[in-house]
Design goal:
two-stranded antiparallel sheet, binds glutamine, single chain, about 0% strand, 2 strands, about 500 residues, Growth Hormone, Chain: A, mainly alpha, about 75% helix
């Protein structure tokens, strides 16, 4: 097959480039592995290792946050040396090994597996998103729609992985659940390797001076691969000593902002202004994730304690409901958002990324407002109607669709060439930071110690959650309004000046 040039790829006809489907399925299987593993972690730690809730939650939170935080290194190495494709392959291979280590019993395999998955994900996840961005020319109005579709693949993988691995892990064998997650990462890698010819030059490593074709495996590549394996013990150590983690996170965030500003400054005023806009958006995304990630934390408890789970004669499982409702809504709504963005772009009426982010924050706030407002309709057991809860999630989800895929898209657009992968890493670092803050916010909503244990008073917890979610709603909407006010200035910063 004749290799396509980058221009031929970017000048595609129709709504989506055909290479997007390859990246869609590769990422879908990677997310299957990631969410499949994640579904089992806390349960495995509490039921098999008999860790207390606090320890299990902290290890879980640190590992999840570490995964997202380390992506700046995966992105940086891909930009400078490896290229996206090799990084994805290496990351995928490590994720397979990590999952298979988790398939063995015992704490030694458990921590080694978790740490290997951190390194694997760091190489894989930012770079597959950067590759999606490379399929579009800079001013192509179809970019956000492409990322919306890609985001659907992400969530399809998360639902399938969460269900299948969760089910097999819980009902048959925990370790088998982890192993199945790894098998599907192999599927993802095979899909990618088989289809990568269609990508033409997209994702190949930067050319060395004088060379006309990139080499397949250089000595430097091998060194990086070796060094990344040597980092695994470091992450094992960090998982066991999580009190240092916030310091690491702060240094990374501060350092990456400075580095990004410095690199873009050297590329001229336009690049610098675009970078400032990107960093403002990233900063607002930290707040978004800090609220949104209550979904994996306090909202789990809220669903269990304060939502009426009766549904046509059945009682729904709180965990299953809370952990699948968002993914299902994303899959259902992503295509609609994709069509909406294209429709608006054709009429030149598409809101810019800052406005979309502001809408995202406002909708998220409204979702939390509904959760809090539901308290007025709670039954005598302190449980709010399922419908209000579902509506709350609906707005959290539409908010997510206005922010998360748009964030991926805008980062690929605003970052100067040569640091796109790194900036994608910074985008995910914001998720890591948000996740960490989410834990803190969640802890502010924990029930007082004396009522912990078997006799939880649902009316008391309802008051705590309604109060907390009410505050989140107000702050989130205020952030949205502030961003909307900034959007006029940000629009100017983001514009192509030529
Ligand atoms: N749910 C999305 C994913 O898994 C977004 C994650 C994030 O940025 N926090 O890719």
């Amino acid at each position: 097959m004749q290799q396509l040039s980058i221009q031929e790829i970017q000048n595609f006809k129709g709504k989506y480039p055909k290479q997007l489907y390859l990246l869609f399925f590769t990422e879908m299987w990677e997310r299957f592995t990631f969410y499949g593993m994640r579904a089992l972690l806390i349960l495995y730690m509490t039921k098999v290792f008999h860790y207390g809730d606090a320890k299990a939650n902290l290890i879980y939170g640190t590992q999840q946050s570490l995964i997202y935080a380390m992506m700046i290194f995966g992105g940086l190495l891909a930009d400078k040396i490896l290229g996206y494709r090799k990084s994805i392959l290496w990351g995928g291979i490590l994720m397979v090994f990590g999952s298979f280590m988790l398939a063995f019993q015992g704490e030694a395999f458990f921590y080694a597996g978790l740490a290997t998955v951190v390194v694997g994900n760091a190489f894989f996840k930012p770079n597959i998103s950067s590759m999606v961005g490379s399929l579009y020319a800079n001013n192509d109005g179809r970019r956000d729609a492409g990322f919306s579709l890609f985001y659907m693949g992400i969530n399809l993988g998360s639902i399938l992985g969460g269900f299948l691995c969760g089910y097999i892990g819980e009902t048959i064998n925990w370790n088998l659940g982890f192993g199945i997650a790894g098998i599907f990462m192999i599927v993802g890698l095979l899909v990618f390797v088989k289809g990568q010819k269609s990508l033409g030059p997209v994702g190949l490593p930067p050319l060395k001076a004088g060379a006309d074709t990139p080499s397949w495996l250089t000595r430097t590549d091998a060194l990086i691969f070796g060094a990344s394996i040597c980092c695994i013990p470091l992450f094992i150590y960090m998982l066991n000593n999580f009190s240092y983690y916030p310091i690491v996170l702060n240094i990374l965030l501060f350092g990456s902002y400075i580095y990004a500003l410095w690199v873009s400054w050297q590329k001229g005023k336009d690049a610098f202004l675009k970078m400032v806009a990107a960093l403002v958006l990233i900063t607002f995304s930290i707040l978004f994730w800090a609220f949104y990630e209550q979904g994996g934390g306090s909202l789990n408890l809220f669903t269990d304690r304060n939502v009426n789970l009766h549904f046509f004669g059945h009682i729904l499982s709180a965990a299953a409901l809370n952990n699948s409702i968002n993914g299902v809504m994303i899959v259902a709504l992503s295509p609609i958002f994709g069509i909406l963005w294209i429709w608006l772009a054709r009429r030149k009426r598409e809101p810019n990324a800052a406005v979309k982010f502001a809408l995202g924050l406002a909708q998220l706030g409204f979702g939390f407002y509904l959760m809090a407002y539901g308290a007025h309709y709670a039954n005598s057991e302190g449980r709010i109607p399922l419908l209000i809860y579902a509506l709350g999630y609906l707005f959290m989800t539409t908010g997510e669709l206005c922010l998360s895929p748009i964030g991926l898209s805008v980062i690929t657009k605003l970052s100067p060439t040569g640091i796109v992968g790194f900036m994608m890493g910074v985008w995910f670092l914001a998720s890591a930071y948000g996740q960490y803050l989410a834990g803190y916010i969640g802890s502010l909503m924990s029930i007082p110690d004396e009522s912990a244990g078997a006799n939880i008073n649902s009316l008391q917890t309802l008051g705590i959650y309604a109060n907390g979610y009410g505050r989140i709603a107000v702050i989130s909407v205020i952030c949205g309004v502030v961003l909307l006010a900034l959007s006029f200035w940000l629009k100017k910063c983001m514009e192509d000046k030529k």
